[in-house]
Amino acid sequence: MTAVRRTRSGQERKHVAADPQALADELLERSAHVCKAPNGRPQRYLVGLAGIPGSGKSTFSEALLRALNARETRAALVPMDGFHRTQASLAADPDPAFSFRRRGAPFTFDPDGLLALVRRLRSEHSLSAPAFSHAAKDPVDDAIQIDSRHRIILVEGSFLCLDEEPWRTISLEMDERWFYDVDEETALQRVIKRHVAAGLAADETAAEAKALANDVLNAKLILEKMVPPDKWLAEMETAPESSPSDGPFPKATPQLPNSVFDMFSMKGKVTAITGGGGGIGFAAAEAIAEAGGDVALLYRSAPNMEERSAELAKRFGVKVKSYQCEVTEHESVKQAIEAVEKDFGRLDCYIANAGGGVPGSINPDYPLEAWHKTQSVNLHSTFYAARECARIFKAQGSGSFIATTSISARIVNVPYDQPAYNSSKAAVVHFCRSLARDWRNFARVNTISPGFFDTPMGPSDKAVEDVLYQKSVLGRAGDVKELKAAYLYLASNASTYTTGADLLIE
Questions:
Q1: Is 180 in a helix, a strand, or coil?
Q2: How far apart are the first and last CA of the chain?
Q3: pLDDT digits 0-9 by tens, 55-102
Q4: Region 166-185: what's the mean pLDDT?
Q5: CA–CA separation, 73 and 206 (whole Å)
Q6: What is the C-alpha to C-alpha distance for residues 231 and 228, in angstroms, rounded to an integer?
Q7: Residue 269, helix vs strand vs coil
Q8: What Pfam families does the annotation carry (predicted)?
Q9: pLDDT single digits (tens) 446-474
Q10: Beta strand pairing status for 127-133 and 138-146?
Q11: DSSP state, 171?
């Protein structure tokens, strides 16, 4: 479908429907001569996707990426947002308040850095690009991995057709320039809703004032000073979604490195772990830290946590902080997660590991408070954490939530009688499996169910231990070190296709 509109100057411009599937087919055909060229210098085809704020260019770019990767090619998406100047950089400007108000204007970006990356795409087989973290409100280095398989690169951003240097040079480096065109009022209303949803404005009135003072000015500049695009895209009418997971399909495949070691890397990521004072929790912390990740240890009463945090940080050269937290109290969990986000700037993984229970048969002598305590420390604490992590993960567009459950979620233990504990852990498994569906568009959720492990929570009665040894396939208790790999797998990009799973380790 082709439509004709006129620019502000009265010139005609022909639009084609922004159909990701059809445009992916056309793009593959036009880029074939580059993508099938012999090896040596990287053979990549670069497409610049521009549009005014609120146009929908980012959503379209992601849909086009999915369509391309569903075919026999590999494409990558590099958003211009990764080249925002940092808050520290803006704070050093002569008028920091003005710079922060106009964040999103051309001068608040690093176009020289973007130009350098674009040129590296022509000369280097493997490289990385930054991405913007909405939680930290700053770019994150090396967030996007690009290797020799990625032959089509989509570069998306408002100013990729701006006729001002160095943006003009960036624009001309593209093999094709596309402009996603929508009505300015439609774009404005989208920006207003986006500002409110992101918490950047208290209500739509404040959001409109913010948009008129910045986003609309940027849109006017883009439309009045434009390097002519090769293709004008007109938004397609779409049916309302019946659920967040409805199309377009297939979803984009994550951009992953070739090296399995790189897939397990936690560099640049932050993990919070409850029950981090010892046992399984501290073992998981060691695994994350050894893989290069920063760690927040949440504990209730473990001694010397500041010293242990400092020792772990020194041993692996990462940032580690400890936070006292009562996981059975929602407000305490909320405050701890907010403190982690403030101190580290982001939160990529949360391991709900704290747990416990009061054994005993269910009869009139079993204390009601014991039942409630067991459900609270195991199930309610997991819910409290998930409730607070949802906001962060959704804003970031990514996250991994891991809950430590137990083999007791699957079997009836002997010789123990512990219905309260068993049922609470089974509830956590199904809660997390349901949460995986609920969070399907922005985070992964999994559980780990350890068997009989040698921890402070393990049985202290030798007779009980003997029975457990006999019933264990390997005839012994597990060492918490034998759980490290499982936690690292689920926390890292090695498990990007794993969600709703329960790993039984026994």
A1: strand
A2: 59
A3: 999 989 988 988 888 776 788 999 999 999 999 999 999 999 999 999
A4: 96
A5: 44
A6: 9
A7: coil
A8: adh_short_C2, MeaB
A9: 999 998 888 776 555 666 677 777 777 88
A10: antiparallel
A11: H
Q: Is the sign of the CA dihedral 348, 289, 295, 503 positive or negative?
A: positive
Comparing CA positions, the residue from 303, 280, 418, 408 lying closest to residue 354 is 280
Higher model confidence: residue 125 or residue 290? 290
User: What amino acid is encoded at 115 in this protein?
Assistant: L
Q: Is 385 exposed, middle or buried (0-12, 13-18, 19+ CB in 10 A)?
A: buried
Phi, psi of 401 (to 5 degrees): -115, 125
Tell me how far the alpha carbon of residue 249 is from its chain's centroid: 20
DSSP 7: -
* Bridging pattern class, strands 400-404 and 349-352: parallel
* Banded pLDDT at 244 (limits 50, 70, 90): very low
Which residue's structure tokens are 């269910």? Answer: 362
pLDDT at 136 (0 to 100): 76
Catalytic residues: 406, 421, 425
The kind and range of the H/E element at 4 are strand 2-6
Within a 13 Å sphere around the CA of 184, how many CA atoms are in the beta-carbon half? 13
Of 135, 136, 141, give the one whose Cα is nearest residue 110.
Answer: 141
How many other β-carbons are positioned within 10 Å of the β-carbon of residue 506? 15
The residue with tokens 């939160």 is 347
Residues in the chain: 506
Using the 8-state DSSP alphabet, how is residue 478 labeled? B
Q: What pTM did the predictor assign?
A: 0.59
| Angstrom distance (rounded) from CA 90 to CA 84 | 10
State the alpha helices, DSSP H only, in 326-380. Answer: 330-344, 368-375
E strands in 91-206? 127-133, 138-146, 152-156, 176-181
Residues 211 and 194: their CA atoms lie apart, in Å, by: 10
Asked if pLDDT for residue 243 goes beyond 50, the answer is: no
Nearest to 101 by CA among 214, 243, 12, 260: 214
Write the burial class of residue 148 (CB in 10 Å: 0-12 exposed, 13-18 middle, 19+ buried): middle
CA dihedral 170, 115, 292, 486 (to 10 degrees): 20
The alpha-helical segments, DSSP class H, found in 360-475 are 368-375, 381-396, 419-438, 462-471
Write out pLDDT tens, residues 382-393: 999 999 999 888
123 neighbors 42 (Cβ within 8 angstroms): yes
Sign, CA torsion 416/355/446/440:
positive
- The helix/strand/coil state of 272 is strand
Contact 49, 178 (CB under 8 A): yes
